[in-house]
Design brief:
Helix content is about 50%, strand content about 20%. The chain has about 800 residues and is α+β, with helices and mostly antiparallel strands. The strands form 3 sheets. Strands 1, 2, 3, 4, 5, 6, 7, 8, 9, 10, 11, 12 and 13 form a 13-stranded mixed sheet that branches. It has a 6-stranded mixed β-barrel with strand order 16-17-22-19-21-20. The protein has a 4-stranded antiparallel sheet with strand order 15-23-14-24. A hairpin with a 3-residue loop joins β8 and β9.
Length: about 800
């Protein structure tokens, strides 16, 4: 019986080739979109799942005086881990993680620069389930100066030799000798922690145990099973009050995120340096919803085309019923056709997914794969999903087609029209409402992204090359600077402790205005070379730039307009210029020498924060900024590299254009805009496939009417308008429904940006015109073909 169902189903699909192809392609595209997004969602949810439970990270809410708003940070204080372990039975283990980038390691004559190395506590490998290939994970980093390296690092340093027990050296601010105690597997790509080696921390940094208030590392805790996290957090104010001097505890709150939640739930957490491929789960959920909408549109296509062609199956139903077939049997027959079509669509969808995945991986910078052979469970899920899609898509057509009465059908009086036509119209409107909604969303997402990329940030971003420094290469900065300035390819050179576009640190400062009491507050700090503002063309509104010679009043500070307004909030009528010469700063107070115009040193997701800039070269710099002559990028880079090699021969030359750095800042936004755009294109494509099928069916059913109209004098234009007008009305109706939904959603989404575009109706009108044009272009082929056909042929049988 089942074999017979599928045999008849295959014959019917083969008989109606155009309709079958449209349905299979539409369903396949919808399925492929869903599969790709589900693979992406599964990959995102897999982050850190290989670790055990009850692991949390300490994070802080900082609310210092002078800051416009509180901020969440992923950092914590050095003494917190051991203090929490000693004072709370809920804490079983702790580990702190301090990271070093471009970490130099040598073994014999081999010298390598490891991208990232962690200094950790001995419990690190007891808390995290990173795989140890050689050595004992339980005591690998218990002794001072012991180090565990990844397999990749072992191959770089030792080749095929066994590294266990061998000594490697680090030459930095001090020379450190490490003994290799373990070799670990390379970090999985779905781990928020990515490192090339880990070494024991306490022996080197024990001097920081009294450093409460300084946040510069991450702390992870292994909590006892059954610990109530909210109850544990409620004890933290008392813990902070005990350890922080004076009222300092009032400026902090501690909260804990489960390790498995950090990757996707840290969008609002700054200074989150150890969160590889951080991605907001709201965006992941958005992709899943849109992919579901695309699949739903494909299912609607099938229902539309199946019910539209009901008259073609009417006589078949009548004959089957007259010879004894009952309604359930017929319904199963039609469902079998749908399921067969859905399984064929699944095969095509898998092919489309394999084709699309390289592009998806390039766009998302993930390593997503469709491993059907190695994962039979996933294949079963796909087949079950295809059966479900086939069942949902076919249930209504099956019930509708099996409901025909044989007497009326065989008399030729079956009614397949008005009510069913209304249902088809509703489904077409629903399809295009979804497609138009996604088109509008794509337009505004792209406009917002371009706005962020093109908006003047208040400083020069073009032709700036950033070169990282460490403690060794940083000692040669002045020599490097002077060598570069001696060439006409270089316009200017400066340096800083942070680069623009990154989340800058905050620090506490003191301020004294005339005879007022000394005021303590906090703000974002930027430590720079004296010609930094000149290189970046940052405008001054009052005062002067840093002087090349140090002021007799101590350090010189430049504040931005936002900071100036904060400093004068108790003197609202005072001019900004009154701040010039006022006492300001940390340690021994310096003076404010100038006020800079506000500039966007951070992402446009955030407002301009209160900022002070200080010329402080004694602490060293981490970034050199080289402004090169326009049109001479290649020659300038070659000269900069050659100069670097002369001055720092043992250190690799690395660089990044500032524009590329800002592209990374907005990388997640770019990924969202492209993925939403792709899904919108798929939605409109599937909708148009359905429209093409309906237009073909409509033209076919009205061929005799068209012949009569042409005989009576109707022009080709009249016939085309007759066939397309109905569909244009449906598309316009879909626009009217989609507009308010899109307007509300886009306005809500834009609230996440401090600087954002306005929602203008011009874009809505543009999308409406585009959707009508696409719909007309889709159905015009069938309409024109019908309009120019010879009426003699269509009326021959009358």
């Amino acid at each position: 019986m089942i074999k017979n169902y599928f045999k008849i189903a295959w014959r019917n699909l083969w008989k109606n080739k155009v309709s079958s192809v449209i349905n299979i392609v539409g369903l396949a595209v919808g399925m492929a979109a869903c599969i790709v997004i589900l693979l992406f969602v599964a990959y995102e949810k897999s982050f850190d799942n290989f670790h055990g439970d009850n692991v949390v990270r300490i994070s802080e809410v900082q609310k210092f005086p002078g800051m416009a708003a509180s901020q969440k940070v992923g950092l914590s204080m050095f003494p917190m881990g051991p203090s929490l372990k000693a004072e709370f039975p809920e804490v079983e283990k702790f580990t702190r993680v301090k990271w070093d980038k471009k970490y130099q390691m040598t073994f014999g004559e081999k010298r390598v620069f490891l991208p990232q190395v962690f200094a950790v506590d001995s419990a690190f490998l007891k808390i995290f389930n990173f795989k140890v290939l050689k050595g004992n994970a339980q005591n690998a980093i218990e002794k001072p100066n012991s180090i565990a390296i990844t397999q990749e690092t072992a191959e770089k340093l030792f080749g095929n030799e066994d590294p266990i027990g061998k000594t490697i050296n680090h030459f930095g601010g001090d020379t450190v000798r490490f003994m290799v105690t373990a070799v670990m597997a390379n970090c999985p790509k779905n781990s928020q922690l990515q490192f090339d080696a880990i070494y024991s921390l306490p022996g080197i940094h024990q001097k920081w145990m009294d450093n409460w208030g300084g946040n510069w590392l991450n702390t992870y805790l292994k909590l006892a099973p059954g610990t109530n996290l909210k109850g544990f957090e409620a004890k933290m104010p008392g813990f902070l009050k005990k350890h922080l001097n004076g009222d300092g505890w009032k400026y902090y709150e501690l909260f804990y995120l489960s390790l498995k939640d950090i990757h996707a739930n840290s969008a609002d957490i700054g200074l989150d340096y150890l969160n590889y491929q951080k991605f907001d789960k709201k965006s992941t959920n958005l992709f899943a919803i849109i992919a579901f909408i695309v699949l739903l549109i494909a299912c609607v296509n099938f229902m539309n085309l199946s019910t539209a062609r009901s008259a073609d199956r009417a006589k078949e139903v009548g004959i089957r019923k007259s010879i004894g077939a009952n309604r359930p049997q017929l319904a199963i027959q039609f469902l079998a056709e749908t399921i067969l079509l859905s399984l064929l669509a699944l095969v095509l969808a898998i092919v489309l997914v394999e084709i699309a995945l390289p592009y998806v991986n390039s766009l998302s910078q993930r390593d997503i794969s469709l491993n059907i052979i190695g994962n039979p469970g996933f294949m079963l899920i796909l087949v079950a999903g295809a059966l479900l899609v086939g069942g949902i898509s076919g249930i209504y057509p099956a019930l509708f087609l099996s409901s025909f009465q044989p007497v009326k059908v065989l008399k030729g009086s079956v009614e397949t029209g008005k009510n069913k036509g209304t249902m088809r119209n509703v489904l077409v409107v629903a399809q295009f409402t979804s497609a138009v909604f996604l088109m509008i969303a794509t337009v505004f997402v792209v406009k917002q992204l371009r706005f962020m990329q093109d908006k003047d940030p208040g400083f020069t971003r073009d032709q700036i090359v950033n070169i990282p420094l460490d403690r060794i290469s940083g000692r040669n900065y002045e020599l490097f600077k002077q060598a570069l300035l001696g060439n006409t390819l270089v316009a200017d050179v400066t340096a800083s402790q942070d680069q623009l576009g990154s989340h800058l640190d905050q620090n506490g400062v003191s301020f004294k205005y005339n005879n007022d009491a000394l005021r303590e507050l906090a703000a974002t700090q930027l430590i720079v070379d004296d010609n930094y503002l000149r290189t970046y063309n940052i405008k001054m509104v009052e005062g002067k730039n840093f002087s090349s010679e140090k002021s007799a009043n101590g350090r010189e500070y430049i504040v931005n307009e936002s900071m100036a307004k904060e400093l004068l909030k108790d003197h609202p009528k005072a001019a900004l210029s009154s701040l010039i010469g006022q006492r300001f700063g940390y340690d021994s107070l310096g003076v404010i020498t100038g006020i800079a115009k506000d500039f966007n040193f951070n992402s446009l997701h955030y407002k301009v924060e209160n900022l002070y800039i200080v010329n402080q070269d004694q602490w060293g710099f981490s970034t050199v900024s080289v402004k090169i002559k326009a049109g001479k990028s290649k020659e300038a880079l070659e000269y900069i590299k050659a100069t670097w090699k002369k001055i720092n021969p043992d250190y690799p030359f690395e660089y990044q254009f500032l524009d590329d750095h800002f592209a990374e800042v907005y990388q997640a936004d770019t990924q969202i805009s492209k993925i939403v755009g792709i899904l919108a294109v798929l939605a409109i494509m599937i909708s148009c496939l359905g429209l093409f099928g309906l237009a073909s069916f409509s033209a076919e059913k009205r061929i005799k009417e068209i012949g009569v109209r042409k005989v009576l004098g109707a022009s080709v234009q009249n016939i085309v308008m007759l066939l397309t007008g109905h569909f244009i009305k449906l598309v316009l109706m879909a626009n009217l429904i989609a507009w308010p939904l899109a307007w509300y959603t886009i306005n809500h989404w834009l609230q996440g940006f401090a600087f954002r575009i306005n929602v203008t109706w011009g874009s809505f009108v543009f999308v409406a015109l585009a959707s009508v044009f696409i719909a007309v272009a889709t159905i015009s082929f069938q309409s024109i073909k019908a309009a120019i056909s010879n009426p003699v042929k269509s009326l021959r049988n009358e």
